[in-house]
Write a structure and sequence with these properties.
Oligomer: single chain
Strand content: 15-25%
Radius of gyration: 15 Å
CATH class: Alpha Beta
Number of helices: 3
Shape: globular
Largest sheet: 4 strands, mixed
Number of domains: 1
CATH architecture: 2-Layer Sandwich
CATH topology: Ribosomal Protein S5, domain 2
Helix content: 25-40%
């Protein structure tokens, strides 16, 4: 039996940094799914690969230390569960937004992220099969 060794990394290529890509993601009619307290806005692109960004509003947490902790939790949850998203012929840009004013345990964030990625995967496969 062959063991598959998958590297759970989040390289720079998988991060959404481009101002133009961010504007396209938040403008227009892009899909959005919610697994409270995480909301994901996503858009299929012509480029290959999945790129993400994580955001925690100052409205919910005034202190940067708390915002950074939640961003770390979200990135870690995505990094460990990104295999749920099936590689598609086109790329996907995803923005994860935190919508709550309390810090949840990491296990809870992991569970919510799994639910969210499953919803995104279902939506993307529905869109791809319709094309």
């Amino acid at each position: 039996m062959e063991l598959i060794k998958e590297r759970f990394t989040l390289p720079k290529e998988e991060r959404l940094c481009s101002r133009k890509a961010l504007e396209e993601l938040f403008e227009g009619s892009n899909k959005s799914v919610l697994a409270y307290p995480i909301r994901a806005v996503f858009q299929q692109t012509e480029e290959t690969g999945i790129r993400i960004m994580v955001s925690v509003s100052k409205r919910f947490f005034k202190r940067a230390v708390k915002r950074n902790r939640i961003k770390r939790q979200l990135r870690e949850a995505y990094r460990l569960n990104k295999h749920i998203l099936r590689p598609s012929c086109r790329g996907i840009n995803i923005a994860f937004l935190w919508n709550c004013n309390e810090i949840l345990p990491t296990e809870k964030v992991m569970e919510k992220m799994k639910n969210l990625l499953i919803k995104i995967n279902d939506s993307v496969t529905d869109i791809s099969s319709a094309d």
